[in-house]
Each structure stands twice: as structure tokens, then as C-alpha cells.
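Chapter summary example.
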Amino acid sequence: MVPEAEVRDVLAELLRLRARVPLLSGALAASTDGLVLAHDTPGVEAEGVAALTAAALGVSVRMTDATGRGAFRELLVRGGSGYIATYAAGSSAVLTLLAEDRINVGRLHLEGRRAGTRIGELVDAALVRAEHPAPAARTAPPRPTAAPDRTLPQRPT
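The structure predicted for these 157 residues follows.
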């Protein structure tokens, strides 16, 4: 799973995104298997949205494969009162945005793609570090803080 520090960074990215795009009503980062990484989704159950995102992602990936359109990049759903946009976020995460109907869809895509890239970098880097932890630093034996008293024996006179 993603370490706590990266989760805080992902949440910070979601909050910045919502500040830049006022007509966003929610933002959620999740793993591709539907586990919530971070969310800012007032009034919406994040776990349910993450699970539905994983299901929609599965269909979208199969659809792009079946039609020869390459790897999944994004999915846009328009409802009667707004949009749900999902963007690939690295190799193992997705970003789902909830937007009001009046949003500029071009701006939604621009900002969503940028945030998805940034979140993907954070999550992928955290997963690489988790799989390949840095080796423990070798430490030298402690040095004495004071020179020991090393006087030579005196010959009797």
C-alpha cells in the first residue's frame, strides 16, 4: 500500500486541484482495484465511488484493447447534472473527478490530466520504494571521544 507521507501528498494535490477548478465538486484518487488512496468528496461515499471507478476502469481497459486504441487514458461520463471524469494516474492508480454541469470540459481535461500525472508519479514512486527499500546505511564503529591514557611504563632509575 502507499505510505502515509505519499497519501498526504496525494490529498494535497487533490485539494490544489479543487482550488484551481471551482466547479469541481469532488476528487478521489484510488488504486486500480478500487481502494481509496485519498479523497475530497463532500457528500459522496468515497469507497463506493472508488469501487465503481474500478468496475468502469475494467470495462474501459477491455474496450480500448478490443478496439485497438491503446492503453486506457481517460473516461468521461455525463449525467443530467454533471460529469464524472476518470484519468489514469500512473501504473496502479486512477483519479476520478466529479464536476458540475457548467464546467468547461476542456479545462476539466487539462487539469485532470495534469493532476493524474502528478498523482501517478507520487504513487508509482512510493510503490517502487516499498518494493525495493534502500539498504541500511553502514555505520563505522564508534570512535572514542577522548584519547585513552597511553603512557609508556617507566623504567626504575
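To summarize the output: The mean pLDDT is 88.
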